[in-house]
Design goal:
Elements (H helix, E strand, L loop, with lengths): L25 H16 L4 E3 L9 E4 L14 E21 L2 E19 L5 E6 L1 H14 L10 H18 L1
Antiparallel strand pairs: 1-2, 2-3, 3-4, 4-5
The chain binds nickel (II) ion (NI).
């Protein structure tokens, strides 16, 4: 396992599309474990491989990431996740490990149904709502080169992106 370097806006790699995973080997399992570890040390609840510069359709999520007792953690690994259907709408405040120092309200589907594979390549289907639904939609966006700030109203989006780009230049 290794702690991975997380790329941040406006790094162009975040705009790349991830390709489907085809090899369900030891290497995939290690990548997923490293992603989980990286997410935990960064205090995030979700991470897409693209954020670590790995252009593969791998997402990890743990809504219990912040639990003090690591036995209470609930790590999930989604390989090649695909949203099959969406329903309802829900607005909630989002943040992202690749977007430093900004959180904002985003409207997404309230519920989704999802197909994905596990690290062994087995197919699963699930229904998700609440935080899990929002988190999955956010992470699957990453696999398509989309960031949550792309969902902000146009004017706000321009302002935020300008500010974040300036900040990144200062910190570089
Ligand atoms: Ni994110």
């Amino acid at each position: 396992m290794a702690i991975l370097n997380i790329h941040t806006f406006p790094d162009p790699i975040l705009r790349q599309k991830a390709v489907p995973v085809t090899e369900f080997d030891q290497n995939l399992d290690e990548t997923a474990q490293s992603m989980l570890e990286t997410m935990y040390v960064s205090s995030g609840i979700g991470l897409a491989a693209v954020q670590a510069g790995i252009l593969k359709q791998i997402v990890v999520i743990d809504l219990k990431s912040g639990e003090e007792d690591i036995n209470n953690r609930e790590p999930h690994v989604f390989i090649n996740p695909k949203i099959l259907s969406k329903s309802g709408t829900s607005v909630s405040e989002e943040g992202c490990l690749s977007v430093i120092d900004f959180r904002g309200d985003v409207e997404r589907a309230e519920k989704i149904s999802l197909e994905y594979q596990d690290v062994k390549g087995n197919y699963h289907e699930m229904e998700a709502d609440d935080m899990m639904s929002i988190c999955l939609q956010h992470e699957i966006d990453h696999l398509n080169g989309i960031l949550f700030i792309d969902h902000l109203p146009v004017l706000k989006q321009k302002m935020v992106k300008k500010k974040l780009t300036k900040l990144a230049m200062v910190n570089a």
